[in-house]
Predict the 3D structure of the following.
Amino acid sequence: MGETPLTFDEATRALARAMQFGIHPSLDGIRELTEALGRPQDSFRALQVTGTNGKTSVVRMAKAFLCAHGEDAAAYTSPHLESYTERLEWCEGQVSEAGFARALGAALEAADATGTDRFTEFELVTAAALWAMRERGIGWACLEVGMGGRWDATSIVEPAVSVITGVALDHTDRLGETRREIAQDKAHIIREGSVAVLGPGCGGVEDIFEERAAELEVPVVRVGHEDSGADVTFRVNERPDGPGGVTSLTVSSAEGARLDLDIRAPAYQAPNAAVAVAAAEVALAGALDPDVAGAIQAVSFPGRYELAASNPPVVLDGAHNPQAAQALASAIEESFRGRPPMVVLGVMADKDADGIVAALAGHAARFICTQSSSERALDADELALVVGGHSDAPIEVRPLVEDALDSAIGEAVRADTGVVVTGSLYVAGEARAALRRR
C-alpha cells in the first residue's frame, strides 16, 4: 500500500466516483482486482448467501453462530444504511472507519495496477472486504450476494456452503421476468465441492437448484416449516407483543439438535434463523451446541423491522419488493395489534410500487409519501397516485424524508400509535440518520 493511507472520507469519495460505472454482468472486474491483490479469497472458507429476501439476516445470524463456536468469522453484507463500515463485521463488531479506508486503499491500488478505471463500487468494496478478511486471518467468510448469483462480485469465491433463501420477483430487468428465470441465475452459486442449503422461499422452483446440485454431485439440505418433511424444520412458539419484541422458535436441525431460539425481530425472521442454523451446521460439519443458541439474541437487523425510536415507536424496514412488503404487513399486524401505524413510504423507480403498496394498503392509518435523495427514487407525487389507487387511508406528500418522518411522528402521537418507514433501504437509512441526529 501507499505511504499515505486514505482517510475514511477520501475512501467514500472514491466510491462515489466509481458508482457511475453501474453494474457489470461479468466476473472479469472482480477477477482482475483479486488477482492483483494476490487472490485473498483463497485464504478462507466461504458461506455464500443469495435469495430475493432474507440474505442479510441469514449472513448475520450464521456469522453469530460460527463466532459462538469459536470460529474467527466475518460477515459481508450490502447495501448499508448510513456507513460503509456496516458492510463488514468481525465477531466483535463492524470494521472501523480506518480499517475500511485501509482495505479500500488496497483495492484502489489493485485497480490502478490493472491500468483501467472501469471497476464498479460493488467490485471495489467486495475486493476490499476480501483483502481485509485475509489480513485478519479469518477462517470463515459469510458473504451476501449483491444481486442474483451468476455474475455477482461475491461469486469470485468457491463457496463451501451455498445458501438460497428463496426466490421472488425482483431485479426483473436484469435477472429475468419469472421466478424460474431468476432461480436459474441464483443457482450459479451452487458450486462443485459445496453443500447447498435451500430455504422455504425456494418452493416451486427448488427443482432448478436440485438439478444443478445433482449435476455437480452436491448434497442438498432443505429447510421448511414443521411437518414439511424438510431436513431442518422450525416452529414459531411465540410472536412479538409489540415493536421491538421477541419471536421465540424451535429449530430441529439436520444433525439432530433441538434449538430453542429467541430473536428480537418479527416472526418473518423465523425461517431465516432456521436457514442460518442449517448453514452453520454445514460449515461446522456437526450439530450446533444448544448452549450457543443465545448467540443470535444479540444479533441486530438494521433496517429490517428495526425499532429506531420508542416514544412513539418508529420502525425502519427496507421492504423494497412485494414479498418483503407482505412480510412487513404481517409484522405490523402482529406487533401493532389493531392500531395501524403511520407509514412513511418511499420507493425506487425501478421497483414494483404497485405490489408494495397493495401489500401495505390495509395496514396503514395514513401514508406519508416521500422519496430518498437517490436519483433512482420514484417521485413522491407519483407514488401518492399509486397509493391512492390501492388505499382509502389519508395520503400526504412530503418529498424530504426528514419532513415526512416529522409529520408521521406528530400524527402518531395524536393517534396513540407508531410509525413505520419503508419501501426502500435508502429511505430507511435517511430516516435512521435523522433520528440519530436527534
About this structure: The longest strand covers residues 195-201.
